[in-house]
């Protein structure tokens, strides 16, 4: 009969005899409540980068991150990246970017870790079930703004490092941290800083890793590409002021009628983009890629169910994912100046601005796309013979990012996932746009990998954002395992 005492003793020896990384995993399990507590402290800081009245909170958040890196024995520079100027002339300082460094052993691999600790705005009135800035645990989920995007993952990195140190295990890599506080507001100041630091701080980094995305399913994932974005404004003006449809209806070429025709000419009912030449730069799909899509875990029925949609633009899992990640898509977002309130107002708007965007894939170029779109819309407009004034403008443009997922870093990521979850990684892309991955790869010319720990249903940017306790704790183990694996390259 195995008594409890003997069992405990055996367990004790089992842990003693386990590998150094298993000891790290065990330590992480044992300290998970501390990690949740620290996340609670970070969530309480309302670091909304888009809200100028909360700028002090963002700056405090950057200081807290800096202090934690120092506590781990690293050196930190809170790098000033200048000011932010608003339309009303108000000028406030941008939060500093935390550039940290831990370890300088020339015989070790140097890994650069990117993350952000600013958040999207959140108010309980938006429809949160709990206070967004008071971390609340319910049914295994940790609810709070920034829990998944991206405070939880940033803390997971720091806790993974702390675990190695607490066990007196030498950290097998040198680390460099790039933590910003403006990611949710266009990463203002970051591009210039990265360019400026490319020959110094960034110069000896071997690999760059980012945990700021999510898995696609219940299966762990590595992300090797994101789409770019071009946002367009199409403005049509027919008169110098809004008109009464009883007095002017039937006499003028209406701006709204022109705009609807222009917007309708962009994409057909199957989602096909009608702008000529747009497909010419899209990288052809290889056989290897198609095979990759077949293996990805993605439940089409569940996807439809969550959205309450009966039919999608594409029938198969592969085609849906390809069109979400691998091909461009066009979405119409809104019309500024159009009557959109309740009731029946018989107005003819004088000036309306249609808003649409195209998600870009490799090798599409924003400038080229902008001229294709402008030429096409002016052609459609000319064919209508309208005397109104048309203006097409590219509001914002960024390229897609894709990288070689067979390089050493991805191999390390796959091994780390196998070690922690006992399963193969899904290699996925993001349909959205995360410009920093491209910026980092383009600037440093080093391998960039996204190693997400968050779940597909975390509700980032939305009400009731959460990170599950499992994702948080196993994610911390995953990042520790990645550190161990990448050190061997
Ligand atoms: Mn993020
Ligand atoms: Mn975000």
- Assembly context of the chains: single chain
Beta-strand content estimate: 15-25%
The CATH level-2 architecture of the largest domain is identified as 3-Layer(aba) Sandwich
Strand order of the largest sheet: 1-4-8-5-9-19
Uncertain stretches: none
Q: Rounded to an integer, what's the Rg over CA atoms? A: 25 Å
The coarse overall form would be globular
Bound molecules: manganese (II) ion
Mean pLDDT: 95
User: What can be said about the biggest beta sheet?
Assistant: 6 strands, mixed
What's the number of domains?
Answer: 2
Separation of the first and last Cα atoms: 47 Å
Structural class: alpha+beta
CATH topology of the largest domain: Aminopeptidase
User: What is the number of E strands?
Assistant: 20
Describe, in short, the structure shown.
With 489 residues, the protein is α+β, with helices and mostly antiparallel strands. The protein has 15 helices and 20 strands.
């Amino acid at each position: 009969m195995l008594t409890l005492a003997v069992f405990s003793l055996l367990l004790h020896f089992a842990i003693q005899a386990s590998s150094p990384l298993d000891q790290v995993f065990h330590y992480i399990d044992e300290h998970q409540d501390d990690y949740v507590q620290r996340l609670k402290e970070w969530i309480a800081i309302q670091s909304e980068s888009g809200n100028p009245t909360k700028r002090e909170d963002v700056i405090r958040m950057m200081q807290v991150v800096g202090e934690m890196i120092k506590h781990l024995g690293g050196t930190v520079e809170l790098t000033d990246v200048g000011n932010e100027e608003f339309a009303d002339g108000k000028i406030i300082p941008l939060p500093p970017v935390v550039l940290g460094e831990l370890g300088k052993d020339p015989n070790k691999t140097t890994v650069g870790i990117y993350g952000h600790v600013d958040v999207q705005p959140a108010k309980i009135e938006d429809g949160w079930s709990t206070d967004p800035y008071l971390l609340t645990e319910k049914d295994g989920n940790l609810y709070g703004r920034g829990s998944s995007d991206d405070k939880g993952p940033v803390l997971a990195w720091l806790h993974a490092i702390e675990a190695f140190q607490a066990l007196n295990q030498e950290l097998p890599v040198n680390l460099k941290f790039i933590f910003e506080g403006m990611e949710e507001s266009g990463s203002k100041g970051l591009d210039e800083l990265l360019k400026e630091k490319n020959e110094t701080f960034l110069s000896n980094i071997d690999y760059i890793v980012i945990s700021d995305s999510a898995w696609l399913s219940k299966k762990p994932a590595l992300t090797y590409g994101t789409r770019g974005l071009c946002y367009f404004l199409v403005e049509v003006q027919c008169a110098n002021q809004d008109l009464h449809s009883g007095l002017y209806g039937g006499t003028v070429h209406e701006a709204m009628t022109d705009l609807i025709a222009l917007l309708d000419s962009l994409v057909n009912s199957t989602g096909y983009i009608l702008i000529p030449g747009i497909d010419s730069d899209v990288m052809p799909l290889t056989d290897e890629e198609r095979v990759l899509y077949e293996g990805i875990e993605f439940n089409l029925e569940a996807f439809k169910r969550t959205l309450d949609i009966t039919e999608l633009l594409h029938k198969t899992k592969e085609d849906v994912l390809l069109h979400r990640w691998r091909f461009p898509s066009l979405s119409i977002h809104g019309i500024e100046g159009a009557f959109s309130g309740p009731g029946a107002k018989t107005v003819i708007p004088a000036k309306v601005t249609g808003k649409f965007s195209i998600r870009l894939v490799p090798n599409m170029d924003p400038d080229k796309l902008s001229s294709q779109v402008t030429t096409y819309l002016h052609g459609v407009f000319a064919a209508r013979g309208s005397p109104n004034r048309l203006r097409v403008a590219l509001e914002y443009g960024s390229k897609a990012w894709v990288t070689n997922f067979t390089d050493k870093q991805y191999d390390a990521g796959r091994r780390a996932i196998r070690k922690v979850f006992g399963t193969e990684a899904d290699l996925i892309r993001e349909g959205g746009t995360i410009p920093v991955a491209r910026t980092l790869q383009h600037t440093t010319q080093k391998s960039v990998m996204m190693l997400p720990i968050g779940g597909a249903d975390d509700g980032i940017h939305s009400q009731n954002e959460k990170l599950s306790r499992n994702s948080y704790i196993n994610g911390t183990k995953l990042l520790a395992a990645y550190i161990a694996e990448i050190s061997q390259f």
